[in-house]
Amino acid sequence: MTNPMSPWTEYLREYRETHGRPPAYLTETMGCQMNERDSETIAGLLCDMGCVPAASRAEAAILVINTCSVRENADNRFFGTLGQIKKIKEARPETVTAVCGCMMQQQHIVDRVKEKYPWVDIIFGTHNIHEFPELLRSAVLERAKAVLIRDDGGDIVEGLPFRREFPFKAYVNVMYGCDNCCTYCIVPYTRGRERSRRPAAIEREVRDLAADGVKEITLLGQNVNSYRGRDDDIRNDGGENDTLDFPGLIERVGAIDGIERIRFMTSHPKDLSQRLIDAYKSCDKLCGTIHLPVQSGSSRVLARMNRRYTKEDYLERIAGLRAVFPDIAITTDFIVGFPGETEADFEETMDLIERVRFDSAFTFLYSRRKGTPAASYADAVPEADKHRRFNRMVERLNAITAEKNRAYLGRTEIVLAEGPSKTDPSMLTGRTDSGKVVNFRAPAELAGRMLPVRVTGVRTFSLYGELLPECRNAPENIPLSRSLAGILSDFE
Ligand code: SAH
Ligand code: SF4
Ligand code: F3S
Predict the structure, then answer these.
(1) Pairing of strands 463-467, 437-441
(2) Ligand nearest to the CA of 308
(3) Which H, E and C letters describe 296-307, residue by residue?
(4) Which of 282, 272, 210 is nearest to 246 (CA)?
(5) Cβ(374) to ligand 1 under 6 A?
(6) How many CB atoms within 10 Å of residue 271?
(7) CATH no. for 412-489
(8) What is the CATH number of domain 7-148?
(9) Atom 21, ligand 1: which residue's CA is nearest?
(10) Span 166-287 CATH architecture
(11) Domains in the chain: boundaries
């Protein structure tokens, strides 16, 4: 809440008088779900300050760029965007420009932005999002450049407002930071050490989301398996019940009425416990899918990446998951061309691909990140080899994805209808329990419902389907159950 007499309120009043409406903001987000969720918080803070969302850059009085630094092309994209912002500033000098996110946690980048891009008004990092309103006020009211970066997260700030991107699904942070120090990765430097939120705070957020119509939540963390929640009601006795672990957290949020689906992201293979695997059996709401980044199929490369598992360990975890949930959809990330990766290492990766048969995968060319251990590894893979390996891998991975999708033809799946499809607004789009995107013809008012859809067509990265005819006028939400027969009997 803003003080009615405050200079900010005065600014809002003047702005409305001259422009006929409150200042509009636009957030542009690069990077992962953590950043997307952070942008939702930034949007929430701006709305609380009396601003409104803008539909485009042209409309924005406040422009916030939330950056990612995971690979070099992310950095380059940001510097490209800064060039475009310069033009906006030239045309409309009163526009307030803010940059934040993971790139801003690196001193050399902050220095470069301050020195070479004077049209940036506000710079803040990943640990001081809650201080953004203050920075914005000083940038607007005092016309001062506002720069604030904190080195580490300290205590988690709870209770910040947020403005959700999607009506029926939501991201929920369960932990921040990462302590793993994979040798290629910048994230531990940009997100700080690992901190888990209190279970009660997470529970409260999920309850509020459910009350607001959210059906599906994705629990977020760089390595959710190392979630350790402390709370007053958990015995802090140094024993088994000292903290709540991630499977325990799933059970807690799974008990919240209205939440029909739970997903999570990301889990590190080294910490994938049998308890978490068993949750696929014990928790109906836990969706039958897992994103388990493997990075490489070569145990030698994995050791140099400091991943702390071998190819065999990974295959064992996959077998464990499939033993409990045979149909589980498994997705992953690969890095191609890590320093020292030989043809033999690459063949190990291709072999792993054949053995696991991933539902889908993201493949990244290794990108050298300043300050990480691998940045000083001398044995870089020649560009041509990297690209050749990348192409061969992607081709094979995509072929397997298409085969996996073809297996869905003729099957009836429960889909959470999220809203109109971007490519064809007469269709609804949603995801199966296993996370496959399905587009199907259905009236827009069915958005937000769990619906049985028969898969009638397959593309490499999505499915097409038909709503079961008897469901078109179904008045109530279809209750969640793993048993399709049970769901269909509701319509008889
Ligand atoms: N915490 C997650 C990953 C976060 S980063 C995990 O450990 O699984 C997302 C993906 O980006 C990683 O899985 C990895 O495949 C990729 N990545 C990270 N650093 C990279 C780098 N320096 N070069 C190329 N890809 C990288
Ligand atoms: Fe990066 Fe490894 Fe942490 Fe994932 S687990 S964020 S890859 S350091
Ligand atoms: Fe990028 Fe930061 Fe996420 S570096 S991948 S936005 S944690």
Answers:
(1) parallel
(2) 2
(3) CCCHHHHHHCCC
(4) 272
(5) no
(6) 16
(7) 2.40.50.140
(8) 3.40.50.12160
(9) 367
(10) 2-Layer Sandwich (3.30)
(11) 7-148, 166-287, 291-407, 412-489
Domain 7-148 matches domain 291-407 at the CATH topology level? no
Question: Cβ(102) to ligand 1 under 6 A?
Answer: no
CA 309-314-319 angle, 5° bins: 150
> Where in 238-301 does DSSP place strands (E)?
261-265, 289-291
Q: Which atom of ligand 2 is nearest to the CA of 181?
A: 8
* Residue 456 Cα distances to 25, 255, 410, 474, angstroms: 41, 34, 6, 21
Of 52, 48, 72, the C-alpha closest to 61 is: 52
pLDDT band for 425, please (50, 70, 90 cuts): confident
Per-residue pLDDT tens over the stretch 57-81: 999 999 999 999 999 999 999 999 9
When computed from its CA atoms, the radius of gyration of the chain, rounded to whole angstroms, is 24
- What single-letter amino acid sits at 395? E
Nearest CA to ligand 1 atom 5: 70
Tokens at 363, concatenated: 């493949």
Query: Torsion over CA of 210, 213, 215 and 216, rounded to 10 degrees?
Result: -80
CA of 70 to the centre of ligand 3 (A): 6
Residue given tokens 């190392």 in the structure block: 226
**Tens of pLDDT along 268-327?**
999 999 999 999 999 999 999 999 999 999 999 999 999 999 999 999 999 999 999 999
Joined tokens for residue 163: 């403005």
| Architecture label for domain 291-407 | 2-Layer Sandwich (3.30)
Q: Is the peptide bond before 266 cis (omega within 30 degrees of 0)?
A: yes
Total-model pTM? 0.93
Closest atom of ligand 2 to CA, residue 307: 2
